[in-house]
């Protein structure tokens, strides 16, 4: 990829006029509607059955549209959302601790380092309470207090308790709720479910999204589907880094193929690194495990104060408990007294890296810090700690063979979430008319850093409460168009291109598995596009990525046949896209000469190591337009105009 050009094209985010708190209501009051009889005549493809996709498909089905819903797993319930542990935010103020819609809005926009759109974030906070009501009505078993009311806990970047949870299995319980709503529509016939179908391309007819081509993962056959509009709810692209907390099947391919068909890709460099993951323990590992942020409610993070204690820990001569209290450095509490262990993820991750880089890491590799529950157990008793976090402790012990009730957990930052994604306007529509993107697949609400428990909120807000309105505004113009068929030449061309792509991969005569190449990609990404980025490192990363992209076709080996169940072929197709995504991330990171949120440019930091934003030059969303195979993409800027909130330097110290 050559150096990109830059343009100042104006992107229309379609933000409604009026006061911040009235925008969404005004929008709903004036949007176009589709009447019930016409809804039956309109087909919508929803790709993805995670919290975003399942909630959207169920809602659109219930409204009366014909929905076709796709996923790659054998059941919608196995979408990556099921892994979400800690909770979902809402501004209910059940704790009477000063929460409000505005405060949730403010925390979220500040947490994102002022790189998100005000109007979108406010709407998110506004609909957050309805999500909890909806899920409770579905029977989601949120944790309750002794008196029977819904309980809350705290997450990073907030000084109130607004996180609703179901032990450490919130995603699972929410997905079961969404799945039951979806199943109801499947039974009624308004949603048709296509499991084990992977979208490989988007079909555009007359400039509008009108269909997809999928590969049936069981038979290997290519299949065509047509509709009046397409919704992408396919999750994030964090697995470009190979070792992440994401499910193994999470991928960025659907979004990437939409980008190649003309949808802009926004803020690709904005990836989140989560501070509390179980550290990597070997070369053969293919996955990292998250220890939920909720643990930072009661766990205290520390490393030794003395370098010699750290060295003895690294050599295995002593254990954490051998270090007396006065020799422990609770570095988050020391550096950020106001938020302590509950600083946002980007801040906590960088602080852990800083301590480990300075030699204070506590495991063999020196790449770990302690998360200690000693105080919590003394304060609340083991039983209460077990009730709150039991399943997480059990998971930790199973993986590490260490009992966290007795020895402090060891944790280290890992890639977890991608704030970047398909660019969408206020209506969640991409730059391709009729193509919408929701959930982690879009870039919309988290700016440069997502706060904990906000992804579930956004996915469900998009699916249950935003898209069902905004899509109608688009579909109202489509009612006179009859059901689309798949015999258009655009379907022929798209299918032919996929066949050629698959043939090319199957005919590679190398001797490396996809996983081995993917590990190499992940290593380059972590080293050069990871937690601390600088110009020289990014340029070297781009060189290495281009080299890998060139070697991929010579070194790849895929066993088996294309027209059959072939997991290696599935992985190769996703991997090919991950290299492209990785390159775009690196170019975007190189372009953004500031530090903000999860994007930390080493050149741009304060003397005490905090991120240094540059609002004068970088207060925009970078929106990349694909220009062709061997051409550099063009970057368009959506200026982020802040009308209601003053952009301040994020401060979690006082
Ligand atoms: C371990 C872990 C814990 C987390 N805990 C929390 C938490 O406590 N609170 C919180 O707010 N967030 C949490 N998150 C983040 C949150 O879980 C995700 O951001 C969110 O679930 C994403 O939902 P989604 O619906 O956008 O996508 P996903 O759940 O990733 O679903 C993607 C769907 O798209 C389908 N798909 C993908 N590609 C294709 C394709 N090409 N063709 C067809 N179908 C396709 C998949 O089959 C799947 O159905 C956590 C994340 C992780 C990794």
From TrEMBL:
Cofactor(s), by name: FAD
Residue ranges of domain FAD-dependent oxidoreductase 2 FAD-binding in the record: 43-456
Record field: transmembrane: none
Annotated ranges, domain Fumarate reductase/succinate dehydrogenase flavoprotein-like C-terminal: 518-650
Superkingdom classification of source: Bacteria
Keyword terms: Flavoprotein, Oxidoreductase
InterPro entries associated with the record: FAD-dep_OxRdtase_2_FAD-bd (IPR003953), FAD/NAD-bd_sf (IPR036188), Fum_R/Succ_DH_flav-like_C_sf (IPR037099), Fum_Rdtase/Succ_DH_flav-like_C (IPR015939), SdhA/FrdA/AprA (IPR030664), Succ_DH/Fum_Rdt_flav_su (IPR011280), Succ_DH/fumarate_Rdtase_cat_sf (IPR027477)
Keyword Oxidoreductase: yes
Residues of the signal peptide: none
Name the UniProt record assigns to this protein: Fumarate reductase/succinate dehydrogenase flavoprotein subunit
Organism encoding this protein: Porphyromonas miyakawae
């Amino acid at each position: 990829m050559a150096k990109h050009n830059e343009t100042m094209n104006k992107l229309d985010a379609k933000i409604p006029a009026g006061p911040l708190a009235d925008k969404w209501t005004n929008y709903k009051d004036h949007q176009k509607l589709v009447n019930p009889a016409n809804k039956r005549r309109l087909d919508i493809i929803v790709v993805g059955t995670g919290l975003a996709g399942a909630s959207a498909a169920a809602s659109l089905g219930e409204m009366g549209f014909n929905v076709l819903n796709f996923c790659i797993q054998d059941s919608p319930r196995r979408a990556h959302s099921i892994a979400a542990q800690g909770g979902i935010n809402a501004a209910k103020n059940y704790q009477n601790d000063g929460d409000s819609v505005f405060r949730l809005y403010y925390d979220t926009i500040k947490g994102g380092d002022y790189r998100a759109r005000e109007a979108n974030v406010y709407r998110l906070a506004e609909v957050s309470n309805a999500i909890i009501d909806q899920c409770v009505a579905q029977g989601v078993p949120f944790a309750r207090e002794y008196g029977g009311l819904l309980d809350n806990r705290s997450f990073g970047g907030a000084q109130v308790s607004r996180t609703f949870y179901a032990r450490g299995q919130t995603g699972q319980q929410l997905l079961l709720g969404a799945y039951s709503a979806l199943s109801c529509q499947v039974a009624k016939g308004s949603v048709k479910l296509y499991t084990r179908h992977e979208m490989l391309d988007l079909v555009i007819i007359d400039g509008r999204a009108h269909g997809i081509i999928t590969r049936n993962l069981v038979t290997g056959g290519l299949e065509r589907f047509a509709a009046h509009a397409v919704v992408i709810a396919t999750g994030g692209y964090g697995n470009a880094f190979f070792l992440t907390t994401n499910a193994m099947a999470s991928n960025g391919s659907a979004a990437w193929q939409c980008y190649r068909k003309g949808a802009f890709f926004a803020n690709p460099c904005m990836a989140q690194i989560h501070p509390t993951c179980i550290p990597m323990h070997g070369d053969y590992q293919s996955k990292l495990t998250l220890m939920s942020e909720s643990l930072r409610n009661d766990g205290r993070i520390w490393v030794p104060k003395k370098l010699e204690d750290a060295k003895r820990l690294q050599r295995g001569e002593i254990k954490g408990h051998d270090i007396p209290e006065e020799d422990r450095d609770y570095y988050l509490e020391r550096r950020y007294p106001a938020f302590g262990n509950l600083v946002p993820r980007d801040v906590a991750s960088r602080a852990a890296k800083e301590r480990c880089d300075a030699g204070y890491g506590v495991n063999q590799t020196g790449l770990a810090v302690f998360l200690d529950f000693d105080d919590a157990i003394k304060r609340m008793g083991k039983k209460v700690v077990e009730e709150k976090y039991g399943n997480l402790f059990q998971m930790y012990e199973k993986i590490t063979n260490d009992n966290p009730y007795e020895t402090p957990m060891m944790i280290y930052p890992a890639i977890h979430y991608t704030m970047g994604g398909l660019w969408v306007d206020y209506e969640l529509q991409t730059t391709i008319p009729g193509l919408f993107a929701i959930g982690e697949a879009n870039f919309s609400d988290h700016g440069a850093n997502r706060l904990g428990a906000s992804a579930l909120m956004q996915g469900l807000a998009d699916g249950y409460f935003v898209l069902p309105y905004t899509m109608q505004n688009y579909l109202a113009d489509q009612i006179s168009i009859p059901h689309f068929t798949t015999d258009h030449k655009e379907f022929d061309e798209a299918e032919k291109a996929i066949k050629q792509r698959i043939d090319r991969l199957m005919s590679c005569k190398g001797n490396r598995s996809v996983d081995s190449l993917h590990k190499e990609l992940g290593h380059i990404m972590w080293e050069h596009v990871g937690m601390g980025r600088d110009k020289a490192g990014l340029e070297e990363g781009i060189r290495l990525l281009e080299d890998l992209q060139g070697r991929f076709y010579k070194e790849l080996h895929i066993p088996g046949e294309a027209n059959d169940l072939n997991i290696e072929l599935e992985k190769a197709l996703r991997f090919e896209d991950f290299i492209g995504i990785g390159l775009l991330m690196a170019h975007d990171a190189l372009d953004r000469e500031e530090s903000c949120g999860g994007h930390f440019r080493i050149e741009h930091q304060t003397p005490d190591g905090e991120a240094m934003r540059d609002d004068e030059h970088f207060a925009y969303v970078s929106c990349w337009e694909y220009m062709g195979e061997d051409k550099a993409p063009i970057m368009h800027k959506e200026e982020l105009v802040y009308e209601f909130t003053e952009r301040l330097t994020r401060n979690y110290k006082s």
